[in-house]
């Protein structure tokens, strides 16, 4: 019998590849996880598959809709306190735009999802779970945990900044044995025999220039869609909406005194959420100015480690950061590991304060920056600070998983990462899971440990020799200055998935 797959939110390339695999009898797409916008497309591609809208599934959990859930199915091993559960609870920031979910609601939703997936996987005899990126939308992450607990094969890719190359494996965590073997095989190969793709060579060249050239494509695109100053059209639009707002206010006043019983509870809950969201957005509007007031463009007058915050909420920290998804913990660990007189210079991610297309307000507040500034030896770098000047002047660079770590290595700066960074096996990179490991990394850096460009080119070659060359969406190809070919990349994906069967 063919393998039974759950496929998460497939893009056109994945729909084509899995359709071909299904037609060939290699597997059966039993279930598709999707969002509202893609549900109809999945039904056209996989007409016999069940479709689960994971946003609706989570709403059912929050509303205590137990029609398809048996809470007795949740195993103690998965619902007892653990790092995995804490990651899932923090990940729920993504589904809480009001910043209003309290701990009990999150804990209950986690138990609901565990129970749902245990029952579903058993009843439908699922054998594989495919997800293009590390699961990070709560429902898919809990599915991943349950699959691991039930020994159901996970098929996932890990992004790399080697343009277009994705590492395929059965986990987003180390070890990645194929990459490790490829690294070992290239150790004794002469540098003049290392050949990299044109896109990779161009990417390295940009990083060795200046930050304007090295800025990742997604950041450039994000900047381009941010709104400018208020226009006359925006003002006119606000005036046109005024009557509707007056009517909405009158409706609230009516319901406030007329509805009774649980309807009143539900109404007040909606009002609570609205007020929580308004409070969060009011603070967020003010927050960039607060950060600017407490940061500097000047280099410190002491040795320092340059720490780059990851954007939050995003999979680069949750789940890839593990316990260090709490970046305050990472900075505190780093600061505690440094020699007397050294400093930590922390710089915010360039898109954290972007509004169009992002929800950065869920990841920061005033207390976050106050906590950073309260740590002895920690200071903030302005968003206007020269990024490469700070990077080149630092003793080392640190991040959870950020692409900046790869940039730093190529510019011959040692790097300390706290999460599952794709480049953590590269020369000059240190993975710190504990304070002791962080101290050992700092000691090695003090003693002169440095990356070298030849070793990094071999590492990039190892990635190219191990990973799959796929641009999943046209934007990825554009960022790498390459052509996008649906047919070519779908065929590559099809062959890669076949190897996992």
Task: Describe it.
The strands form two sheets. Strands 3-2-1-4-5-6-14 form a seven-stranded mixed sheet, with helices on both faces. It has a seven-stranded parallel sheet with strand order 7-10-9-8-11-12-13, sandwiched between helices. The chain has 22 helices and 14 strands. The chain is an alpha/beta fold and 501 residues long. It has helices at 12-23, 36-45, 54-62, 76-79, 83-91, 103-124, 139-149, 177-185, 198-207, 211-214, 217-224, 232-240, 242-258, 261-293, 327-337, 366-374, 387-393, 404-410, 435-446, 453-466, 474-479, 486-498; strands at 3-8, 27-34, 50-53, 128-131, 153-159, 165-169, 295-296, 304-308, 343-347, 378-381, 396-399, 415-417, 429-431, 468-469. Residues 229-233 have low confidence and may be disordered. The protein folds into three domains: 3-159, Rossmann fold; 200-223 and 294-462, Rossmann fold; 232-288, no CATH class. Helix 3 (54-62) packs across helix 6.
What attributes does this structure have?
single chain; 501 residues; alpha/beta; Rossmann fold; 3 domains; seven-stranded mixed beta sheet; seven-stranded parallel beta sheet; 22 helices; 14 strands
Could you outline the blueprint of secondary structure elements for this entry?
Blueprint lengths: L2 E6 L3 H12 L3 E8 L1 H10 L4 E4 H9 L13 H4 L3 H9 L11 H22 L3 E4 L7 H11 L3 E7 L5 E5 L7 H9 L12 H10 L3 H4 L2 H8 L7 H9 L1 H17 L2 H33 L1 E2 L7 E5 L18 H11 L5 E5 L18 H9 L3 E4 L5 H7 L2 E4 L4 H7 L4 E3 L11 E3 L3 H12 L6 H14 L1 E2 L4 H6 L6 H13 L3
Parallel strand pairs: 1-2, 1-4, 2-3, 4-5, 7-10, 8-9, 8-11, 9-10, 11-12, 12-13
Antiparallel strand pairs: 5-6, 6-14
Helix pairs in contact: 1-22, 3-6, 6-7, 8-20, 15-19
